[in-house]
Design a protein that fits this description.
- This protein is of the alpha/beta class.
- It has a single domain, classed as Vaccinia Virus protein VP39 (Rossmann fold).
- The protein has 6 helices and 9 strands.
- The longest helix is centred in the middle third of the chain and has 14 residues.
- It is globular.
Length: 205
């Protein structure tokens, strides 16, 4: 009986650890950097988001701005995304993320230890299919970040953009051609999925 109880306990996520939900690295536990204000996207939200994105993950080029623990980008890679660029200005968080990438053996993951705005102003190369935008709620950066994404031509023609916001605040003003496909609330977070393009697309895409 004691051994059975111990096995059940071992299956639970450990405090201070990030758990990959599904895919090649399912249930892998990764280190979380000790950085004030670092808040990994919850398992519940990630499950919902990646259910939305399921038809589009395989082979996708991803950008994880304000990567923090890298929860979103690593989840995407685990589920078959071709590559992910992680942007994280905290040296400590970026170093921890690099260790996680090394532990997982993810050669197509790249960490950029710079501010999100700096990355967007200097980035070049192929556009991204999926972008994860999860800036600090109090910073009110979303409109400017979205403007920079558009200006830099970093979005594929049918890209998807995931946005996290404070649900107690009005939605940020985003580019007119971004169509909201899905939106949900979880705790104090409002999380939404947008599509870049001009065609009519309903919520049940």
């Amino acid at each position: 009986m004691q051994q059975l109880a111990k096995r059940k306990t071992d299956n639970k996520p450990q405090p201070g650890r990030l758990r990959i939900v599904a895919g090649n690295w399912r249930s892998r536990l990764l280190e979380i950097a000790d950085v004030p204000g670092l808040r990994p996207t919850s398992v519940r939200v990630r499950e919902t988001l990646f259910n939305w994105l399921a038809p589009r993950i395989a082979g996708a080029r991803c950008l994880d701005l304000f990567a923090g623990t890298g929860a979103l980008g690593l989840e995407a890679l685990s589920r078959g995304a071709s590559s992910c660029d992680f942007v994280e200005k905290s040296d400590r968080a970026a170093a921890t993320l690099r260790r996680s990438i090394a532990v997982l053996g993810a050669p197509t993951a790249t960490v950029h230890p710079v501010a999100a705005q700096q990355f967007l102003q200097s980035a070049a190369g192929q556009p991204f299919d999926l972008v994860f935008l999860d800036p600090p709620f109090a910073a009110e950066m979303l409109p400017e970040l979205c403007r920079l994404l558009e200006k830099a031509d970093l979005l594929a023609s049918d890209a998807r953009i995931y946005v996290e916001e404070d649900r107690n605040q009005p939605p940020a003003g985003l580019p007119e051609r971004w169509q909201m496909l899905k939106t949900r609330n979880a705790g104090n977070v409002r999380f939404s999925l947008y599509r870049v393009g001009d065609n009519e697309v309903g919520d049940n895409e």
